Amino acid sequence: MEENGEGVEEYLFKIVLIGDSAVGKSNLLSRFARNEFDSNSKATIGVEFQTQVVDIDGKEVKAQIWDTAGQERFRAVTSAYYRGAVGALVAYDISRRGTFDSIKRWLEELTTQNDSTIARMLVGNKCDLENIREVSTEEGKSLAEAEGLFFMETSALDSTNVQTAFEIVIREIYNNISRKVLNSDSYKAELSVNRVSLVNGGSKQSLLSSCCSR
């Protein structure tokens, strides 16, 4: 948190997108940040991020959302990518069971690489592919409940729940910080150019939602 020139508090939260290749992470980000979807998007090497401003309880919150952009296929997601993250969307493709089976490994890596309080959302993407679904909504809910994650099924293609999923994570980060300020005199938030780091753990909640009624 910092004061800008007009004395208004600003919040800058780093959020990471993780999950297997081709689950739609880049399109989730482009749909949220620019309301765009590229059906011909290619995996690229490197790290990309978008900064999006969201209003939370009248506060201007800037979410800096990082996308692994194809590195995960080489298992080259480094500690620098996770450093300072206070939120994570862990995505799988509902039409490819293998991407769902990888979720626990991604959660373990997230825990290993980052010891901050992290607001975590399990995202079952591509729910527009209901006719070739391989992972049921109930399976996604069960895993989220077991791991203490929020859960939502999304479609970057038709925009279903994308905005909501990101905003829930951003609000939970904001709530985590608010709880720390209220509950601990020794709470410290570290804000550098691109991160806020939280000290100690926070409560875990699960939000269950499905986008498909078919």
TrEMBL record:
SUPFAM superfamilies: P-loop containing nucleoside triphosphate hydrolases. Its main location: membrane. One of its GO terms (cellular component) is endomembrane system. It is a lipid-anchor. It comes from the Eukaryota. Keywords: GTP-binding, Lipoprotein, Membrane, Nucleotide-binding, Prenylation. GO terms for molecular function: GTP binding; GTPase activity. It is found in: Endomembrane system. Pfam families: Ras. Belongs to the small GTPase superfamily. Rab family. This is RAB11B, member RAS oncogene family. It comes from Canavalia gladiata.
